[in-house]
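From the thread on structure requests for the teaching lab: each student submitted one protein with a one-line request. Submission from student K.M.:

"Model ABC-2 type transport system ATP-binding protein from Anseongella ginsenosidimutans, C-alpha cells only."
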Amino acid sequence: MAEKAIICKDLSKQFGSFYAVNKISFEVEKGEIFGFLGANGAGKTTAMRMLCGLSYPSSGEASVAGFDVYKQQESIKKHIGYMSQKFSLYENLNVLENIEFFGGVYGVSRGEIRERSRSLVQTLGLESQAKKMVGELPLGWKQKLAFSVAIFHRPRVVFLDEPTGGVDPVTRRQFWDMIYEAAASGITVFVTTHYMDEAEYCNRISVMVDGKIEALDSPGNLKQHFSAASMDEVFYKLARGARRSAD
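Reply posted by the TA:
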C-alpha cells in the first residue's frame, strides 16, 4: 500500500456555532497532486491552516507526513513547504538572499544552501538576476522562485495556496511543469486554485462547498459522474445542488 502523505478523518473547525470546516475526510498518497477546490469562504484556507500546523482543529483526526496535527505541529512544519499568492518572498532582498534566508529557516546547512542555490538559480535561468531585488522581478518569475524556495529543503508535502493567481496562461503552464517535476521526485503537492482548467492537472480533486467536501475523485471521473464537459461545469452543478439542499 502506498504511503499516505495526508490523512483526514472527520476534521472540523468551529467558531462558536459556525463550522468553517465540517467533518471533512480524505487521504492523499505520497507524490500525488491533490487539488483542493472551493469558492471564497468554502473553508479551504481554514483546512489548510490546520494541516500546516498553524491552527488546532475543533474535532476529528488528521496527520501530515506521519505527524499528528494536535500533538506534533512543530514536526509538521519542519517537513512541509508552503507557498501563498499573498506572501512567499521578501521583496527587499535579492534572489540569492531570499534563497539563503529560507534555506536557513528550513534548517538546510550553509554548505548545502550554497550548492543548491547555484543549481537553483541556473535551473530557473536567473543567473543574471541573482543580485536583483525580488520586488523588481516580473510576477511570473516571483512565483517560480517562491515555489522553488518552498521545496528547497525537499519537504515531504508542499502546500500551495492559489499559487498562480494573476500570472499569464503561459507562465501558469510552466509553473505546473515545475509541480509535475516535484511530484515525480516524491513530493506530495496539495494545491488550492480557483482556475478550473488547472484542476484538470491534478491527480484527484476535492470540491468544498460551505465547509464540506461535496465531491472527491479524478477530474475525468468527476466530469463523467456529473455529465459535465469541464470542471467549471462540475463546480457549478455542485454549488447549485448545495444551495438547493440548504433551501
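TA comment: Residues 4-89+156-246 form a domain with the Rossmann fold fold (CATH 3.40.50.300). The first strand starts at residue 4 and ends at 15.
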